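Lecture 7 notes. Example A: sequence first, then its structure tokens.
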Amino acid sequence: MTVTLYAATTNPGKLRDFSVAAGEAGCSVEPLPDLGISPPAENEPTFAGNARVKAQYYSRFVQGLVLADDSGLEVDALGGEPGVRSARYAADAGYEPRDADPGISVDVRNNLYLLSRLRGISVRSARYRCALAVARDGTVLCAAEGLVSGEILDTPRGVGGFGYDPLFLIPQLRLTMAEISLDQKHAISHRGQAFRALLPQLRGLRIK
């Protein structure tokens, strides 16, 4: 029997990544239906905490299994920033890049702010981290994490991916996350690793 997971995200990049991972595992990932409710506050200090909060919250309104994630970038030279604030990094700082088009995307603004914070820093080791949680009826049934290590470039490369992908270099490939195929990304990415770690637990849920 195929397991259907309702993904608690409106991010098309995340939905695409999860769909690729789920398809290879014989699962199905669908976006949450329009519930007409406000999202929960994501104030936990860890990715795992935020993933659990979202999974528990949305699973109270959906019949079935809800998959929630929290993921982002950790840069060693910045003490782990942007961390759980990855999606809101520039907004939290009130950062507005000089001479930039006022209509630039949130991702571009975050990338520019990250580069401004790293100006003059040569050692730029970083990692992407993803935490997943699956819940039903307000109870978390399983959870997993994954990470991938890399480096932050000075300039973006590639047109694929989203978020910080154009700046995130995978040393063994000498390519950024925005330059690799979806299959490659699933094989090495933090979301792919987290999903694979979740699979044995999901298989256990099938017979319940």
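Example B, a different protein, same format:
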Amino acid sequence: MVRLIPRDEAFYDIFVKDGENLLDAARRLDAMVTAYDRLAERVAEIQALEHQGDVIDTEINARLERSFITPFDREDIHELTARLDDVVDGIQEIAETFVIYGVEHPTDEARRMAAIITAQASQLLDALRKLDGFNGIAGHLHQVHDLEHEADGLSRAAIGRLFHDGIDAIDVIKWRDLYTELEETIDAAEDAAEIIERIVAKND
């Protein structure tokens, strides 16, 4: 069947660019909590990527306004853009909080949760690269969900230990906030995966 009014297929490329930016930010957070040096420089790099993400989001929204026919529902394009942005915003917030709170050494749980964000970002990017054909996406999204489940257990155990290991009250507040920010960012990545699942279901 010949499509008389072609769809704007450029959205696929822009979403891939958005996913690449997200993965870059996640990797930089992972590197930051692993090496835990040059903190101000590393945070600035993440802030620059968050700004780049905003530029990409503006590009998506501008194209959405110009396009007569989109490759999938406008509501889903808007929602996916917003959820990917939430993940990058969360990454920036986490990096900044480490510095603002003067954390001396990341915990093992914090390092693992940062690694989970990176793994989720990688799976999301792989899924975004396959959006144009809607094939082979399910496995990537399943991985995002599995990683979120792992993070839930890590976060609960880590927060529980804060109240049983005789930790200073101020440190308890700092780490509870950080674990919450890490978990919320991981949840945001799962939210993005759920939007992709919805898009695939509608176009299956």
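Note on Example B: The mean pLDDT is 93. The chain has six helices and no strands.
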